TrEMBL record:
This protein's record includes keyword Transmembrane: yes
SUPFAM superfamilies attached to this UniProt entry: DPP6 N-terminal domain-like
Top-level division of the source organism's lineage: Bacteria
Membrane-spanning parts: 35-54
Keywords from the UniProt entry: Membrane, Transmembrane, Transmembrane helix
Region described as Disordered: 62-87, 283-311
Designated name of the protein: WD40 repeat domain-containing protein
């Protein structure tokens, strides 16, 4: 009977979140009597059943929506180089090869109470009618691959309405009314689904002054996420709270930031949440079950962008002057670049990067450039700006 009890509990442990050593603790405390074994088994079965029921993940909430027909992506996609080195933020489209600056935001700090401040983003969207950018009132935006449609959040910082806009006509194709407030939206790689991260409160709170300015160290208000299937007309909500902060002992993954937005894997089969350690992300199924990282996928840290070249031969290196690009198969250095960061592949031989002004005496005086793998060719894409200053703009790169 002892072995039967232990085996039964171990089987259940593989299917439920049973406290470590539950079987051993139960067995250590036993006082066997001839008639007590069956009673103990029954009691343990009941206890584990209650525990499993209490720990079961909430069922996803499915909400039917109106299907939306999205505008078709251009074929073939443009691959020319477009620059604007006269304006900061840019007034004209910035693009190179397969990638474009589809949107950007300007970040400002607003007083809240005491030393606390909150981050406000003012968004501008690419406007194909003018070839430039148009300021928007939305709390968050993301542009679908192909630069034909955008997902937007209506609200002040957070919102419960997500809309889909046709970029060419500037008309809203439809709105989604949600039960939970969301703070970010991200299109899937195929441009058909929207991943919206839900928060119970605004996550971008700061405190301190000057060099002491940093995020407020409280638990992230992240509560879960929606996956909105735009053509099918369906939104599914899943509860998934934040990762613990860095003060939590024995946690496999941690994140001390309030904002913990979800993103898509490169093939769109999984989603991921950010960490502040290594690895920099945790992967989940669309239903929220943690998974191993997809084999062979490499990312630009903290983004949905692939670090591997389109032909699969090369991989982007880490930040830091100079940067380097290595061969996937051998790890040999294919080239070094006099830039601060490598951001996205324009094509197999050129990368959109963050370059520095002049002799790179100030790391915050920087701008977008196009640099070759061997570092011998560099084209300025956008004007240099003080990236640490109030009102600095931050780009969003999207496949064309």
């Amino acid at each position: 009977m002892t072995r039967l009890l232990r085996d039964t509990l171990e089987d259940w442990a593989g299917e439920a979140r049973v406290p470590a050593g539950l079987a051993d603790r139960a067995l250590r405390r036993r006082t066997w009597r001839p008639y007590g074994a069956a009673v103990l088994v029954a009691a343990m079965i009941a206890a584990v059943a209650v525990f499993v029921t209490g720990q079961r993940e909430p069922e996803p909430v499915v909400r039917p929506l109106t299907p939306i027909t999205l505008p078709p992506r251009p074929s073939p996609a443009p691959a020319d180089v477009r620059t604007d080195t006269e304006h900061s933020p840019p007034a004209k489209l910035v693009a190179a090869g397969r990638m474009a600056v589809s949107a950007y935001h300007v970040r400002t700090l607003e007083p809240v109470s005491g030393e606390q401040k909150r981050v406000r983003r003012t968004w501008s969207l690419y406007d194909p009618r003018t070839g430039g950018y148009e300021r928007t009132p939305w709390a968050w935006v993301d542009v679908a691959p192909g630069l034909q449609a955008a997902a937007v959040i209506e609200g002040d910082l957070l919102g419960r309405r997500v809309g889909v806009m046709d970029l060419n006509t500037r008309q809203m194709l439809g709105w989604y009314e949600l039960e939970h407030s969301v703070g970010s939206v991200a299109w899937s790689p195929d441009g058909t689904r929207i991943l919206a991260t839900a928060y119970s409160g605004y996550p971008d709170l700061m405190q301190g002054e000057g060099d002491e300015l940093g995020p407020v160290r409280t638990a992230s208000p992240r509560t879960g996420y929606y996956i909105i299937d735009v053509p099918a007309g369906e939104a599914v909500y899943h509860e998934l709270g934040p990762l613990p902060n860095g003060l939590t002992r024995d946690a496999e993954h941690t994140n001390g930031n309030g904002r913990q937005d979800f993103g898509w894997s490169l093939d769109g089969r999984l989603i991921w949440g950010p960490t502040t350690g290594t690895p920099d992300r945790v992967f989940y199924t669309p239903d929220g079950v943690q998974q191993e990282p997809p084999e062979g996928e490499r990312y630009r840290r903290g983004t949905n962008l692939s670090a591997t070249s389109p032909d699969g031969r090369l991989v982007l290196g880490r930040d830091g002057l100079p940067t380097k690009i290595t061969e996937v198969g051998t790890g040999n250095v294919a080239g070094r670049q006099r830039v601060l960061q490598l951001h996205a592949w324009a094509d197999d031989e050129n990368v959109i990067a963050l370059g520095c002004a002049g002799r790179c005496e100030d790391e915050f005086d920087n701008g977008l450039v196009l640099v070759s793998v061997d570092g011998s060719r560099m084209t300025q894409l956008a004007a240099n700006r003080d990236s640490d200053g109030d009102g600095a703009w931050r780009w969003v790169l999207t496949p064309r």
